[in-house]
């Protein structure tokens, strides 16, 4: 009178192509949207002065902004050390900059042109995130007979890692886990082993 109370069916595979579709497959509950932003790596804002310290950005920055004074990164906090209004930076109170010190900023800004897709988490797993099945096909040693290992109702459960080695192709290691479908009376995995004569 024993019964099955637990089955864990998993396939761990290396995806050879690093495509948007494969990244979305490897990152459960993720989505891709066109990102109409660009990176301003080094916007030269100007030199410190003895008077009011206000600078103008080339673009309207999106927080966070990283500031450098004479090439040294600053740990400035918005509202404490500076304020930004549209494309204008104003240094607050005691956070003065030495006269003739070079001020540079790194930030993103709305470019108006989508140059990339931004992949982010949806925070919830939806029914559409489950793959119907994932199969690994291999051949028996010394023959052309295929063995097919199948997991069904699949999500990627492992860590997202890209394996890189000098002079080798990069791969994404993905662990696919099968899940029971409460509406289907069958195991969420199968192995198709060839009949040998």
What attributes does this structure have?
15 strands; 6-stranded antiparallel sheet; 4-stranded antiparallel sheet; mainly beta; elongated; 197 residues; 1 helix
Short synopsis of the structure:
By secondary structure, the chain is mainly β.
Radius of gyration: 27 Å
Measured by DSSP, the beta-strand proportion falls in: over 45%
Low-confidence spans: none
Q: What is the β-strand count?
A: 15
Termini separation comes to 36 Å
How are helices and strands ordered from N to C?
EHEEEEEEEEEEEEEE
Strand count, sense and closure of the main sheet?
Answer: 6 strands, antiparallel
**Molecular shape:** elongated
- What do the pLDDT scores average to? 88
Report helical residue fraction. Answer: under 10%
Q: Which structural class do the helices and strands define?
A: mainly beta
Overall description:
With 197 residues, the protein is mainly beta. The chain contains one helix and 15 strands, in the order βαββββββββββββββ. The protein has one helix spanning 20-26, and strands spanning 10-15, 30-35, 37-47, 54-56, 61-69, 72-73, 82-85, 88-91, 102-110, 116-121, 131-139, 146-156, 161-163, 171-177, 189-192. Strands 1, 11, 12, 13, 14 and 15 form a six-stranded antiparallel sheet that branches. It has a four-stranded antiparallel sheet with strand order 3-9-5-6, with no helix packed on it. It has a three-stranded antiparallel sheet with strand order 4-8-7, with no helix packed on it. A hairpin with a 6-residue loop joins strand 11 and strand 12 (146-156). It is elongated.
């Amino acid at each position: 009178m024993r019964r099955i109370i637990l089955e864990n069916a998993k396939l761990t595979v290396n995806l050879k192509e690093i495509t948007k579709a494969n990244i979305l497959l490897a990152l459960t509950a993720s989505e891709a949207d066109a990102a109409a932003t660009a990176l301003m790596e080094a916007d030269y804002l100007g030199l410190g002065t003895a008077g009011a310290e206000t600078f103008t950005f080339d673009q309207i920055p999106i927080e966070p902004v990283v500031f450098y004074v004479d090439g040294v990164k600053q740990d400035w906090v918005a509202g404490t050390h500076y304020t930004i209004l549209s494309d204008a930076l104003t240094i607050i109170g005691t956070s003065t900059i030495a006269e003739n010190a070079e001020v540079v900023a790194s930030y993103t800004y709305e470019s108006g042109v989508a140059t990339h897709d931004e992949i982010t988490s949806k925070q919830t797993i939806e029914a559409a995130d489950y793959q119907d099945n994932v199969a690994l096909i291999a051949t028996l040693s010394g023959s052309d007979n295929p063995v097919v290992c199948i997991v069904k109702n699949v999500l990627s459960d492992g860590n997202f890692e890209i394996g890189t080695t000098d002079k080798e192709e990069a791969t994404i290691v993905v662990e696919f886990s099968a899940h029971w479908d409460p509406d289907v009376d069958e195991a969420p995995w199968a192995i198709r082993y060839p009949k040998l004569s």
